[in-house]
Design brief:
The structure holds 2 protein chains of 2 kinds.
Chain A: H1 11-29, H2 52-62, H3 67-89, H4 102-121, H5 161-214, H6 218-221, H7 225-232, H8 237-248, H9 256-275, H10 289-303, H11 320-333, H12 343-353, H13 356-366, H14 370-376, H15 380-397, H16 399-407, H17 416-421, H18 430-443, H19 445-458, H20 460-464, H21 468-476, H22 484-492, E1 497-498, E2 501-502, H23 503-521
Antiparallel strand pairs in A: 1-2
Helix pairs in contact in A: 1-5, 3-4, 8-18, 9-11, 10-11, 11-12, 11-13, 12-13, 15-16, 15-23, 18-19, 19-22
Chain B: E1 7-17, H1 23-32, E2 45-55, E3 58-67, H2 74-77, E4 86-92, H3 96-100, H4 102-112, E5 123-128, H5 141-151, E6 155-158, H6 167-183
Parallel strand pairs in B: 1-3, 1-4, 4-5, 5-6
Antiparallel strand pairs in B: 2-3
Protein name (chain A): TBC12 protein
Keywords (chain A): Coiled coil
GO molecular function, one term (chain A): small GTPase binding
Chain lengths: ~525, ~210
C-alpha cells in the first residue's frame, strides 16, 4: 500500500513508466563511468571510489550471470595467475591451433584478467600496455575469466601431450563459445534497451500530438489515416482515458449530476438493505426488489475479487468504494441489466483511467453497445451469433487450428466468454489489455474478436500440440509473459475479411439466417 | 510409469454453486495444493486436471469444470454440463442463502443431465468455509444426511479450501460413486450401494457417504 501513487489517474502506467525510466537512466548512466579511448576493459567499470557492493550490483545488471564469475576472479585471481602461467606455457605444441604465437597470446589473457580485476576493484589501476588494447568492443565477456585451464596438481601424474592438447583445444572452444554467447546477449540487451527507450520517446512525442493536435480537433481528425495509425500504436497513458471517453461517446446523455442521483439511490438501497434485509419495502411494484438487492450483494462479493493482485480494489483499498459506487449506481440506472459478473473488471479499468463520474458515463455507454448488451443481458441466442461469426473468421484465418479445435468439440464459448465479458482485462496483463481497449475504442466489437484470433494465432503452434483439457486450461489462463509487440503483430496479421465480407456483414447475414430459421421453425409445436 | 494392464478413466466433473462460495479455491487446493484469498472471479468456465492413482490397476483423470456461479449465467453455462459424469455442488456455510440455492442447483443439474443408464449424475454436496466457525447448518449432521437423501446427493462433506479439510475425501467419495455407477449400468444405482471390490481401506475415508 505504501507504493500507491497519490493520483488515481493511470495508476499502473505510472508504475510501469517509472520503472522503465529508472532502468533506462540507470543503464544509460553506466557508459559515462567508462574510461574513454578503449584503454580498459569495456564492461561498465565503476570509478574507484564506488563501494564494492554497488559496483558488483551494477555489473550484475549489465552482464547477467557474470557476478558469480566475478566473485571468483576477484577473490582468487592474484594467486591463480601465478599458478596459471607456468601451467599453460608448459603445454607444448598448441601453437598448431592458432596463427598467433603462444607466448604473446598467453600473457595477454592473464593481463586482461588482471585489468578487469583492477578496474573492478579500483585498485592499482594503470593504463594497460598497447598490446592489450581493445577497440570497438563494447562488451567484455566476464564469465570466461572464471574458466581457467590448469595442469594437474604436482602430486598427480602430468597430463600426456595429447591430453594436454585436447584440453587446451576444448578450453579454447569453451571460452570462444562463452564469449560469443555473452556478446550476443549483450547485444540483445542493448537492443531491448534501445527499443524501450525508443518506445518511451514515441509515447512522449505521441502525447504531444494527441494533446496539441488531435484532441482539440477530435471530430475532424479521429477518422484520418494518420490518427488511426497513431492510435494503433497505443494511446499515451496520460490521454488514454480522455480518448476512450470521446471514442465511446455519450449517446445516453448521462451527466455527472445524473450519476450523483443514481449513486445516492444506490446508497439508500444499501442502507435499507443492511437495516431491514428481511422486510420488503414494496416500492417498485412488479420489479423484483429481491433481485436487485441480491445484485448489490454480488457486487460486494465481486469487488474484492477484481484485480486482487493490485491490492487497490479490496476492502480498505483506495479504489474499493469507488468501484462499489460506479457498479451500484449502474444497477440503479439500468435495473433491467443489473450487475453481471465481469462488469467489475470493466469498471475497474475505467476507474484506473478516468475520474469517477467520467468512468461511470463511459461504463454505461460502453455497456450499451450491441455486443456488450447481448452478453451482459446473457442473450444466449445473440451470443451464439457472435460465436458463429467469430468461427467464420477463425476458419478463414487459422484453418488448421480451427479443425484441431473442431476435432475436440472445443467451442468458442469455452474461452471467448471470459475474454468478451471482461474485454480481456482479466485474461491479459493490464497494460496489454489497455492497448486492446485502445483499438477496441477505435474499431468497435470487431476488434474484440480479432484480438481473440490474434491470441489463437500467437499460440497456434503450442495449441496444435495440445488436447482438449490442456487447450481449455491454456486459453482460460493465458501465459503471463505475453508481450504487446508479439500479440499486436499477430492481431495485425488477422484478416477480418471473409470472401469480401467484413465482420459487420458476416454478422448481419447470420442474424438474417436466424430470422428465416425462426420463421421456418415457428409453426413447430416444440420451440 | 503406466503399467500395461492399467485402466484409465477420464471423468468430467462439474463444480457448481452460488457465486463466491469457494469453487475455484476448492479446485486450486485440490489440484495445486495451495490457497489464496485473492482469486479472481470466474467468468464463464475455468478448467483443471487432476490425476489420481486410484488403485494398482486404475488411473483416474478428473477434468474439473469450474463454472461461474451467477444465476444469470444459467442459460449460458448449461452447455458446459454436457457429458459430465459427476458434480460437486458447493455452498458457503457462512451464507445461508447459498445453502438455500443448493436445491436449485441440484434440480438444474438433474434437469439437464442424465447418465446413459437414465440415472442422475452422482453429486456430492460440499459445505465449504467450515474453518470460519459459523456453524449455522452444520451442527446437525442428521438433518444434513436427511437433506442429502431427499435431494439425491451421494454424500456431503464439510470442507475448507483454506485449511485443506475433506477435499480429497469428498473427491474420492464422488469418484467411487462414478465408478460404481459406470461399472454396472444395469444395476440400480442406489446411493448407498458400494461395489465390494472398491471397498478398500483407502475408500473408507469417505465417512460421510451413506452406507446402510
Amino acid at each position: 500500500p505504501a507504493a500507491l501513487p497519490p493520483a488515481p489517474l493511470g495508476f499502473t502506467d505510472v508504475n510501469l513508466n517509472s520503472r522503465n525510466t529508472y532502468e533506462v537512466s540507470r543503464r544509460r548512466s553506466a557508459p559515462e563511468h567508462l574510461p574513454h579511448g578503449g584503454t580498459a576493459p569495456a564492461e561498465p567499470a565503476p570509478p574507484p571510489q564506488e563501494p564494492a557492493e554497488r559496483a558488483r550490483h551494477r555489473v550484475g545488471i549489465a552482464g547477467a550471470g557474470s557476478s558469480f564469475a566475478e566473485f571468483f576472479t576477484r577473490n582468487f585471481f592474484t594467486k591463480r595467475t601465478k599458478e596459471l602461467k607456468p601451467a599453460v606455457q608448459s603445454a607444448p605444441g598448441w601453437k598448431l591451433f592458432g596463427k598467433v604465437p603462444p607466448r604473446e597470446n598467453l600473457p595477454k589473457d592473464s593481463k586482461i584478467i588482471q585489468q578487469e580485476y583492477e578496474a573492478r576493484t579500483g585498485r592499482m589501476y594503470k593504463p594497460p600496455p598497447p598490446s592489450a588494447r581493445r577497440k570497438n568492443i563494447e562488451f567484455e565477456p566476464l564469465s570466461t575469466t572464471a574458466l581457467i585451464l590448469e595442469d594437474r596438481p604436482a602430486n598427480l601424474p602430468a597430463k600426456s601431450v595429447e591430453e594436454a592438447l585436447r584440453h587446451r583445444q576444448e578450453y579454447d572452444e569453451m571460452v570462444a563459445e562463452a564469449k560469443k554467447r555473452e556478446i550476443k546477449e549483450a547485444h540483445k540487451r542493448k537492443k531491448i534497451m534501445r527499443e524501450r527507450f525508443k518506445q518511451e520517446e514515441n509515447i512522449a512525442s505521441a502525447m504531444v500530438i494527441w494533446v496539441n493536435e488531435i484532441l482539440p480537433n477530435w471530430e475532424g481528425m479521429r477518422a484520418t489515416r494518420r490518427v488511426r495509425e497513431l492510435w494503433w500504436q497505443g494511446l499515451p497513458p496520460s490521454v488514454r482515458g480522455k480518448v476512450w471517453s470521446l471514442a465511446v461517446g455519450n449517446e445516453l446523455n448521462i451527466t455527472p449530476e445524473l450519476y450523483e442521483i443514481f449513486l445516492s439511490r444506490a446508497k439508500e438501497r444499501w442502507k435499507s438493505f443492511s437495516e431491514t434485509s428481511s422486510e420488503n419495502d414494496i416500492e417498485d411494484a412488479g420489479a423484483s426488489v429481491a433481485d436487485r438487492e441480491a445484485s448489490l450483494e454480488l457486487i460486494k462479493l465481486d469487488i474484492s475479487r477484481t484485480f486482487p493482485s493490485l491490492y487497490i480494489f479490496q476492502k480498505g483499498g483506495p479504489y474499493h468504494d469507488l468501484l462499489h459506487s460506479v457498479l451500484g449506481a449502474y444497477t440503479c440506472y439500468r435495473p433491467d441489466v443489473g450487475y453481471v459478473q465481469g462488469m467489475s473488471f470493466i469498471a475497474a479499468v475505467l476507474i484506473l483511467n478516468l475520474e469517477e463520474a467520467d468512468a461511470f458515463i463511459a461504463f454505461a455507454n460502453l455497456l450499451n453497445k450491441p455486443c456488450q448488451l447481448a452478453f451482459f443481458r446473457v442473450d444466449h441466442s445473440m451470443m451464439l451469433k457472435y460465436f458463429a461469426a467469430f468461427e467464420v473468421f477463425f476458419e478463414e484465418n487459422l484453418p488448421k487450428l480451427f479443425l484441431h479445435f473442431k476435432s475436440y468439440s472445443l467451442t468458442p464459448d469455452i474461452y471467448l466468454i471470459d475474454w468478451i465479458f471482461t474485454l480481456y482485462s482479466k485474461s491479459l496483463p493490464l497494460d496489454l489489455a489497455c492497448r486492446v481497449w485502445d483499438v477496441f475504442c477505435r474499431d468497435g466489437e470487431e476488434f474484440l474478436f480479432r484480438t481473440g484470433l490474434g491470441i489463437l494465432r500467437l499460440y497456434e503452434d503450442i495449441l496444435l500440440q495440445m488436447d482438449f483439457i490442456h487447450i481449455a486450461q491454456f486459453l482460460t489462463k493465458l501465459p503471463e509473459d505475453i508481450t504487446s509487440e508479439k500479440l499486436f503483430s499477430c492481431i495485425a496479421a488477422i484478416q477480418m475479411q471473409n470472401s469480401n465480407k467484413k465482420w459487420a456483414q458476416v454478422f448481419a447475414s447470420l442474424m438474417k439466417d436466424n430470422k428465416e430459421g425462426d420463421k421456418n421453425h415457428s409453426p413447430a409445436p416444440k420451440s | 510409469m503406466q503399467k500395461h494392464n492399467q485402466k484409465e478413466h477420464l471423468y468430467k466433473l462439474l463444480v457448481i454453486g452460488d457465486l463466491g462460495v469457494g469453487k475455484t479455491s476448492i479446485i486450486k487446493r485440490y489440484v495445486h495444493q495451495n490457497f489464496s484469498p485473492h482469486y479472481r472471479a470466474t467468468i464463464g468456465v475455468d478448467f483443471a486436471l487432476k490425476v489420481l492413482n486410484w488403485d494398482a490397476e486404475t488411473v483416474v483423470r478428473l477434468q474439473l469444470w469450474d463454472i461461474a456461479g451467477q444465476e444469470r449465467f444459467g442459460n449460458m453455462t448449461r452447455v458446459y454440463y454436457r457429458e459430465a459424469m459427476g458434480a460437486f455442488i458447493v455452498f458457503d456455510v457462512t451464507r445461508p442463502a447459498t445453502f438455500e440455492a443448493v436445491t436449485k442447483w441440484k434440480e438444474d443439474l438433474d434437469s439437464k443431465l442424465i447418465l446413459p443408464n437414465g440415472k442422475p449424475v452422482p453429486a456430492v454436496l460440499l459445505a465449504n468455509k467450515c474453518d470460519q466457525g459459523i456453524d449455522v447448518l452444520m451442527n446437525n449432521g442428521i438433518k444434513m444426511d436427511q437433506f442429502c437423501k431427499e435431494n439425491g446427493f451421494v454424500g456431503w462433506f464439510e470442507t475448507s479450501a483454506k485449511e485443506n479439510i475433506n477435499i480429497n475425501e469428498a473427491s474420492r467419495c464422488l469418484v467411487k460413486h462414478i465408478i460404481a455407477s459406470e461399472s454396472d449400468p444395469v444395476q440400480s444405482v442406489e446411493p448407498d450401494i458400494v461395489k465390494p471390490h472398491l471397498n478398500s481401506s483407502k475408500i473408507f475415508s469417505c465417512s460421510a457417504c451413506f452406507k446402510s
